[in-house]
Amino acid sequence: MSVHNGKPYGILLFEKWHGKYNIGSSRIRGHWLAKYWPEAEIFRQGAKYDAVIFQKCYWPSYASEFGGVKILDLCDPDWLAGVEVKAMVDNCDAVTTSTEELKRQVEQFTDSPVVFIPDRHDLDFAGGKTKVHEGKAKRVCWFGYSHNLNVLDIAINTIRRNDLKLTVIHNLRPFYAKADKNVEWKEDTVNEDILKCDFVVLPEDMRPLGKYKSNNKAITAWALGMPVAKTPEDVERFLDPEERRKEAELRLKEVREKWDVRISVGEFRDLIERIKKQKKSDEGR
Fold it and tell me: Given a cut of 90, is residue 17 above it in pLDDT?
């Protein structure tokens, strides 16, 4: 059990491990989980846990000595960047992944359980605000990290052809010259900035690593009642406010049924219990 408040599960965050702040994967697969998981907390050095989830953190020396349940949570194919993912996998009881493609790849180098637990959303993050769709669309937006901005290039002609203005919400390193407006991403203003637009444009990521990306941006938009255009046909359809209203209603229902982070809490909890039972069974042999 943990030293101070008795929470048995710790989530070691990528952002904490690297001394960063407000990292998307740590928010989605760490902070939001802990918010709705009474038995879990953000990992504290020196605390004692029954289980630790290593959220994109590679600490094999600690994992090899830790006697509780150990889960490596992956949202990127970090082995392609030279990270020794295999060493960490070998010292964990299971691996969880944010996409099916990541799951398939990890299964190639381990016999340990690999479980797909998709990115899901804290429905309270929207603050109860959803877009009211009126009139022909005039402005669209994209949001994310600046190093991913080039995925927008294939959509620029479609955006311009339909007389739409483009807002890009990102960390401003660098500015995106093809946008009409560059806005800094901030946790307390991003929803408001998205809602100033009529719909979100998220072109398919055609880069080699694109197949590993989750749909978390789409879920964020849907939770705000914002349609997501992935193709030129989508862009043209969502010019019509009635089409936007229909899509928004459909996707809001989907978010509430499939993409609530509380579902992920249940899946992680079930996985930990399965591992505990397996460990107990192995000890009895």
Answer: no
Residue ranges making up the domain that contains 243: 124-258
User: Is position 70 within any domain?
Assistant: yes
Residue type, 269: R
Distance CA 166, CA 278 (A): 52
What pLDDT, on the 0 to 100 scale, is given for residue 18? Answer: 84
Residue 3 is assigned to a structural domain of this protein: no
Q: Report how far apart, in Å, the C-alpha atoms of 121 and of each of 112, 224, 265, 280 are.
A: 27, 11, 11, 33
Are 248 and 198 in contact, with CB atoms under 8 Å apart? Answer: no
Angle CA(171)–CA(204)–CA(105) in degrees, nearest 5?
A: 95
| Same domain membership, residue 108 and residue 33 | yes
Same domain assignment for residues 142 and 248? yes
* Region of residue 222 (left: phi > 0; alpha: psi -120 to 50; beta: else): alpha
The set of long-range contacts for 279-285, using a CB threshold of 8 Å and a minimum separation of 24, is 279/69, 279/93
In a domain, 1, yes or no: no
Residue 129: CATH number of its domain: 3.40.50.2000
CA dihedral 217, 218, 223, 225 (to 10 degrees): 130
* pTM of the shown model: 0.93
Indicate if 273 and 252 belong to the same structural domain: no
Weakest-pLDDT range from 5-9, 118-122, 189-193? 5-9
Which amino acid belongs to residue 54? F
Element (H, E) at 234: helix 232-237
Report the pLDDT value the prediction gives residue 282, as an integer from 0 to 100.
82
Looking at residue 281, what is its pLDDT? Answer: 82
Q: Which two tokens stand for residue 67?
A: 């006697």
Q: How many domains does the chain have?
A: 2
